[in-house]
Amino acid sequence: MIEFTVVSSLLLFSSCLLAASRASPAGNVTEYAGSPKVRSTVKARQTTSSKLVFAHFIIGIVSDRTSSSDYDADFQRAQSFGIDAFALDIGTDEFTDTQLGYAYESAYNNGMSVFISFDFAYWNPTTDAALIGQTIAQYASVPGSAFSAVAGAPNVYFAPNFHPGESDLTVLDGAAMGNNYAPQDGVLVTVTEGDQEYQSVLSAAQGYIAPVSPWFSTHYGAEVTYSKNFVFPSDLLWYMRWQEILTLQPPFVEIISWNDFGESHYTGPLSSLHTDDTSSQWVNDMQVPHDAFLSMAQPFIQAYKDGASSPDSYITSDLIVYWYRITSKELDCDATDTTMTAANNASGLYFGAGASAFSSFALSRDGEQVMSATSLKVIQDSCPCGIYNFNSYSGSVPAQTYDVLGPDGLANLMDGLLVACEPTPSLPVTPPATTVATATSSAKAAATYPPV
């Protein structure tokens, strides 16, 4: 019997604003879109009925990419885990068109699909309506799109993050739920309840994009203009949510996210080229890599696409996947944290407010230990870089490739910090020798639905 063991600790989840339209690669658009290879690809995508898995990709932090090849590794890695398309989250940055062109060209070259996700934290639905339409038209006939154009005219698949009870969902092709919610007045609001809300108003002909996210915390203070600071508790959500997806079997699933380091729910590698919006303060050294989450998700993705109710038959080898917070939730960092002062609250989401141990993991079967390892990341009783860090550290046994932030991704680590913190990767290559525990402690995970 093959076992797939999941060990987790403390917290997770995410929210995101998604409005899906359609798109494709830029540069020599007319010649590119008219090629025989492209036309056959478009036709194939228009007639397919298979379920699709997307990953949310933030364009706003990749201005340092200089060619389509800078996207190749992301697309290739995503495909290896069963991801079919990237939802390209765009704002109104001046480099957006350039990066969309690179992304679509790489998607086409790698047999990947992409589509545009307009982020309305930046777009104005009234004053920017014409520009949004122009952007859709610009990319509608270019290959690489998950929702492809009919020859001769844009054929937009409109699946925004409209909310039941607040918008008319009957006029849509589909709808996307942004993600989980923070507890309200001490009551846990689950993703399942969100699913039920959307399913109650969407017809069978409409496509529901169901979100899946491994974690959520963000910690921007006064050092930036986009301050936001909050945490959503969901210790086992990644595992439980994939179980729910196998029951729900929606037409689309969106992993939130691939590279949103700022909200701590990234599943792609730290080395994925990006600039630093100061998220390095809670991301540096926090992955070996986060895509251990994807290793756990892979058999679920395969089961989902086949309509199976369990991932068991898709698990082909032993693997321990673990994640945990690196400090106790009781740790007091008020004196040095960067969010203890007033900050720009345009987002409406800014809520200001020694000894160490390592984690070891083991798998035993029939009284015999099959595998074991000790994590490289210490659980500490001091404040990392002086701040509250609610990001998760994840890994696996056997261990995956060691992964680090590049220079661009570390450039602003010191911004606003009140204590010295080196902007360099610092994980040890090997874990220290373990010692016999002199005391034990236990922690209760946040509530999950269904209970585990």
Automatic annotation (TrEMBL):
User: What Pfam families does the record point to?
Assistant: Glyco_hydro_71 (PF03659)
* Flavoprotein listed as a keyword: no
**From the Swiss-Prot or TrEMBL record, what is one GO molecular function term?**
glucan endo-1,3-alpha-glucosidase activity
The record's section on InterPro entries has: Glyco_hydro_71 (IPR005197)
Q: Membrane-spanning regions, if any?
A: none
Instruction: Please name the source species.
Output: Gymnopus androsaceus JB14
Q: What is this protein called?
A: Glycoside hydrolase family 71 protein
Q: Where is the signal peptide?
A: 1-23
Look up keyword Signal and say if it applies: yes
Alphabetized UniProt keyword annotations = Signal
